[in-house]
Amino acid sequence: MNTLLIGATGGVGQSLAHQLAGRVSRLWLSGRNGQILAGLARDLSALAVPAELGNELEVQALAEEVGPLDLLLYAAGAVQRAGLREQSMADLERLTAANMGGLALLLKYARFNPQARVAVLGVYPELIAVPGLSAYVATKLGAEGLVSVARKEFRREGVRFCLVRLPAVATGLWAPLGGAPKTALHPDQAAARILEGVLAEPLTEVLEIR
Amino acid sequence: MNTLLIGATGGVGQSLAHQLAGRVSRLWLSGRNGQILAGLARDLSALAVPAELGNELEVQALAEEVGPLDLLLYAAGAVQRAGLREQSMADLERLTAANMGGLALLLKYARFNPQARVAVLGVYPELIAVPGLSAYVATKLGAEGLVSVARKEFRREGVRFCLVRLPAVATGLWAPLGGAPKTALHPDQAAARILEGVLAEPLTEVLEIR
């Protein structure tokens, strides 16, 4: 099972990487931080392929290097807290690239084997629609929109999509928000439930993790 | 009622402009095409304020020129048909600016009078999730996300938001899609129903037009 994990150095991403290692025949780990990525790949006997998701050429090169995929896990994500009145367009672009544009680029360039799976980590929109998170909400909903169309466009290639709705998970993503809520899942718990759902047959279109 | 109509030269926008003229005390019309805009403003005794929605300085200048608003109508929009495999990032950026980023910029810079209304023309997501429309779906859902957060952030300023769900309307937006479906509303019909809802008291949060 040729597997590419995007966002492998993130909180949920690292847990996913550990739990995927040994379970898939070939594991590619991608992220922005090449150093952390290289260490993680070494520990897990995986392959590190750093890429900047806002850079089309880098994503294209990544897709070519990993070859036809059986499983693509999109676990990249960025968050920022800013009211609409203070929102900088640079931050909006950064969140757009991490949460939505990188996914569009991967779907443009990735090649898939028959019956491949694509899983995208998403949210419960009603839980995140809070003051200060407009860029996060907009780009996460945008990614849902991409998945809803990709599902139809890739049907002819036999690729199946799973949108994973995650509750709060205790990761560094919460740092700019003042820390994760006490009810947040541990990243290892979240990763275990994600993989259980994403590797199940048949694949569910929307996997709701509580 | 100091009113700003964004996307005034578009199909629904022009109908909205005609129906707003004479009904609001001051009507500002914005769009990208300065020439069409000037003609429309002259015909309707309105004020033309051209602006490129992807340009932060232009939107800021626009917001300053029009002053505190009682009604902001966001009727800008762009569509493009391309499979995810062929999607150019330039087109994705263009749609992002027209459908989502321009709204973020307006909400950053616009000033509002108490009890002001903001109406954003939206879609029925399940109707547009079809192959070739991924960028449109992603950016329209992104705009919905912005509205869901803006509603909460602007409550303290007394600004109310209305998301208008529109069915197919027979406008030029459909040109790249091979023409509007036969069941499409006439833009004048759509505009009449939009204004009826947007000017009603109390303001509904989501106005569904069928």
TrEMBL record, chains A, B:
Q: Which SUPFAM superfamilies match?
A: NAD(P)-binding Rossmann-fold domains (SSF51735)
The keyword Cell cycle appears for this protein = no
Highest taxon of the lineage = Bacteria
Instruction: Provide the GO MF annotations for this entry.
Output: gluconate 5-dehydrogenase activity
What Gene3D superfamilies does the record tag this protein with? Answer: NAD(P)-binding Rossmann-like Domain (3.40.50.720)
Keyword Transit peptide assigned: no
| Annotated EC | 1.1.1.69
What PANTHER family does this protein's entry cite? Answer: DEHYDROGENASE/REDUCTASE SDR FAMILY MEMBER 7B, DEHYDROGENASE_REDUCTASE SDR FAMILY MEMBER 7B
Record's family? Belongs to the short-chain dehydrogenases/reductases (SDR) family.
Protein name, UniProt field: Gluconate 5-dehydrogenase
Q: Which organism is it from?
A: Meiothermus hypogaeus
